[in-house]
Each structure stands twice: as structure tokens, then as C-alpha cells.
Amino acid sequence: RRGCGVSWCPVPDQPPRRSCPLVELDRCPLVDQAQVVVFGLDLHQPDSRRVLRALRDQGGAGPEVIVACPRPVAEHWADTVEGHRLLAAPLTGPSLPAAIGNAVDGH
User: Fold this and answer.
1) What does pTM read for this prediction?
2) What torsion do the CA atoms of 31, 10, 105, 59 make, to the nearest 10 degrees?
3) Which end of the chain is more exposed for a tag (fewer CB within 10 A), N or C?
């Protein structure tokens, strides 16, 4: 509805197993083109945490990152989630589009 393009990344812990270019090379063509990244990987998985840290390491040069996960998980991995927007799961119908809109608009 907002005219946003959407890209999808095959996660590193799903078969076939692959490395994440953002983690391995410090660059990802999908992230390079994004204004907002919605991160929904399982933070209990080490590879997932590496991806989120790589997103944070981009600093102001990277896109806004929205971490969509249950609040207790975010609290457990607070050091990894720090610096990103948190969207507590389970997501409701309007919550994700609203969070993306706020991130795009800089709120």
C-alpha cells in the first residue's frame, strides 16, 4: 500500500545451508538496497545472531532494522538486539506495516 518493494533472503540456517554474504563479506546486495530490514530469524541460533550483529555493525550507513521476536527472547539477547527497533511478536495485522512505515519515516 505504501509503494514499498519487498525482497526476501533465504536464511542461513535453512537447507540448503549457505553462508550469509553480510556476515562473510560485510556486504549484501539485498541489504545495500534496503531502507528497512525486518529481522525474524531465531535468536537462539548462533548464525542468526551473527547476521543481526553484522546488520548493527553497518552503523548509520545501513538500513533501519526491525527485530520481530517475542519480548522475552529480545530481553534474553538484549546485547544483540541493542541498537535495533523491537517489534514484539506475535505480530498483529497492522503492527508490521506500521513499524515499517515508522522506520521509513524516521519515527
Assistant:
1) 0.85
2) -40
3) N
Of 27, 28, 29, 37, nearest in space to 4 by CA: 37
Taking alpha carbons only, the member of 100, 29, 94, 41 closest to residue 65 is 100
Q: How far apart are CA 61 and CA 82, in angstroms?
A: 17
d(CA 103, CA 101): 5
Q: What is the largest CA-CA distance in the chain?
A: 37
Burial state string for 52-82 with b = 16 or more CB within 10 A and e = fewer than 16: bebbeebeeebbbbbbbbeeebbeebeebbe
**CB neighbours of residue 103 within 10 Å:** 19
